[in-house]
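Below is one such record:
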Amino acid sequence: MSHPVVEARNLTKRFGSTAALNDVSLRVLPGESHALVGRNGAGKSTLVSMLTGLRRPDTGEVRFNDEPAPPIADRDAWRERVACVYQHSTIIRELSVAENLFINRQPVKSGVIDWRTMRRDARALLDHWKIDVREDARAGDLTVEARQLVEIARALSYGARFIILDEPTAQLDGDEIKRLFRRIEELLREGVTFLFISHHLQEVYEICQAVTVLRDARHIVSAPVEALPREKLIEAMTGEQGGLAVADAAARPPLAADTSVALQVEALAGEDYEGVSFHVKRGEVVGLTGATSSGRTSVAEAIAGLNAQRTGAIRVDGRALPAGDVPAALRSGVGCVPKDRHREGLVLSQSVAENASMTIARTLGRFGIASPAKKNAFGRRMIDALGIKTQGPEHAVSGLSGGNQQKVVMARALATDPDVLVLIDPTAGVDVKSKEALLAVVDRVRDEGKAVLVVSGELDDLRTCDRVLVMFRGAIVAEFPAGWQDHELIASVEGVSLHEE
C-alpha cells in the first residue's frame, strides 16, 4: 500500500491558554480528494498552517510521502511538496498571468528579466495543465474561476502534487463550480492530490472520496464519504443531531393586505441588469437569487448605495434614494451586510466595538467622535445580542473566526436600526451553527416590522423568505412563494423550465 501524500501525526498547538489544535491526526492518500470540514474555529486554519509550513506544532509531526517535513525556514522545499489556494486570492491583479506564475523566479538574461522566455514558459505551463487563459492577460481581468486555476498551475510548477483548496467555490456560480470540479477530477487522474475545505457539505459528496471532521480543535472522525450521510456529518461537526435549524417561511401566517411597502424598486437598470422592479413590505423577507452572473448582487449593492444604477428609482418609505450614495442610504434607513466582509464589511485591525459602531459614531459622540467607553458599551450589547464569541469588545476582529466576523458585520448593519435590511450572501463561508445564528437574526428583525432583502444563492438562506425572486441574465424571471421545491427553484436559477411541453 502506498504511503500517504501527507500525514499529520498528533499535532497540538496552543496560543496562551487556548488550544488551537489538540492531538489532531490526518492522512491523505495519493490521488484522492479529501475533505476537511468543521465549524469556524474548529482548528482547520491552524492545521493548514502546519501542513504548509507556516507554523510549527508544539508537539506532533508532519510527514510527506513518509518522510519528515522540511525545516520551516526552507520555503522552496515546502513549495515542492504542498500549496494552498486560499479563498482570498494571492494573485496580484495588476500583473500579467505570466508574471504571477513566475513571481520572484523570473528568467533573467544579461541581468534583466527575459520577458520572451517567461511568456513562452508560462504558455507551456498553462497548455500542459489545460488551463485556457492568455499568458499576457492582466490577472485582475480574469474571472475568479480562472484566477484559481492560475494559482493551481503556479503551485504545480514548483513540483507540488498536493494542493489544499480553501473554500474554492465561495465566489463561483453553478456552471463555474461544475467546470472547476471537472478540472479537479482531471488533475486527480493526472496524479494530483487535494485537501478540499468547504462549508458546502453537498460539494463534499460530489467531489471527495474521504472526509475528516474537526470539532473544538480535536479530530472527531475520518471516513469514506459514503460512510457518513449528511445527518451524521453535521452531527460530527456540531456534536448535535439533526440538520440546519432555520425558520421556514412556509409556516408563517401571511402579512395583512394593508401592510405598508418599505422598499420599492422601479425599473432599475445597471451594468448587468435591466428593468428590475419589485417591492418589500414591512415585516416581509424577500429573497433575490440567481447565478453569480445574473445581476442579483449588483441590484442589492445599488439599493445599499454601494454602486449606482443607470436608470430607475429606489424608494424607502416612499422617498427616492440618490444613486450610489452610501451615507444617504444609511440616513434613509437602509442597513447592509455586503458580499465581501474583508474588503467592504470590516476593518480587520480594529476592535469588535469599533467595527460594530462604525455607522453610528456621530450619534455616540459630538462631532462624530465617540469615547472608547461608549463604543465598548455598544459593542458589549451587540456581542450579547448576536452571540459573538470574542474575548470582549476591544478584541481585534482579525482574531475572530469567519462566522463571528460575519456577526460583527451584521451588528454594524443593525446599529442604525434600519427599516430595510439588505443581506448579500449573509452566510457565505461560515459554519452550520453560525448560519443558524445569522438566519435567526433575519426572523427577529422581521418580527420587529423591518423589511429584509436576502440576496443569495444558498437554498438555506432563502428558506427564511416569504417569497423568492429569481434573476436570470439581468432580469427577474420568476417568483416562488414560501414552500418552494428545491429542484424547481434550482431549475429556474439555471434558466430551465420544468413545465415545458
In short: The chain is about 30% helix and 25% strand. The mean pLDDT is 87.
